[in-house]
Amino acid sequence: MENYTMEGRTYRYYGQEAPLYPFGYGLSYTTFSYRDLVLSPPVLPVCANLTVSVVLENTGPRDGEEVVQLYLRWEQSSVPVPRWQLVAFRRVAVPAGQETKLSFQVLAEQRAVWAQGWRLEPGTFTLFAGGQQPAQRTRAPSEVLSARLSVTGAARPLQEC
């Protein structure tokens, strides 16, 4: 084998073809709505962790469970990276007509890229939160919110943080 690229060979590097059944896809007897996506802080040092909160509401007539998914996208990187990376998920039971506020921690190491060793880089990132993948072709009955964050400072090896 001479071609070691992961493009089109693993779920992290889809290429142009999306999977038939993406992560978290499934049917539900109710509907959900997302709102109030908050990144804290929206500008963070290169070695800092990020706190994410979002409100999930069951807008349907029945109790239900939703798999809340957080994805991270690098807007620019010095090395090839996935289109987006799953950084957190949680299955949440929400009674009909109720809402819940969820909080997640995105660790600095989840933003690391491989460049002859794990390295953290400054730049702009987009974080997605919802019941499906960003830009998913097979639609689930929920939406995906997005927010941008900036990472400041100099690039450094992960073990220096």
TrEMBL record:
<feature type="domain" description="Fibronectin type III-like">
    <location>
        <begin position="66"/>
        <end position="133"/>
    </location>
</feature>
<dbReference type="Pfam" id="PF14310">
    <property type="entry name" value="Fn3-like"/>
</dbReference>
<dbReference type="InterPro" id="IPR013783">
    <property type="entry name" value="Ig-like_fold"/>
</dbReference>
<protein>
    <recommendedName>
        <fullName>beta-glucosidase</fullName>
        <ecNumber>3.2.1.21</ecNumber>
    </recommendedName>
</protein>
<dbReference type="InterPro" id="IPR036881">
    <property type="entry name" value="Glyco_hydro_3_C_sf"/>
</dbReference>
<keyword id="KW-0378">Hydrolase</keyword>
<comment type="similarity">
    <text>Belongs to the glycosyl hydrolase 3 family.</text>
</comment>
<dbReference type="GO" id="GO:0005975">
    <property type="term" value="P:carbohydrate metabolic process"/>
</dbReference>
<dbReference type="InterPro" id="IPR026891">
    <property type="entry name" value="Fn3-like"/>
</dbReference>
<dbReference type="InterPro" id="IPR050288">
    <property type="entry name" value="Cellulose_deg_GH3"/>
</dbReference>
<dbReference type="GO" id="GO:0008422">
    <property type="term" value="F:beta-glucosidase activity"/>
</dbReference>
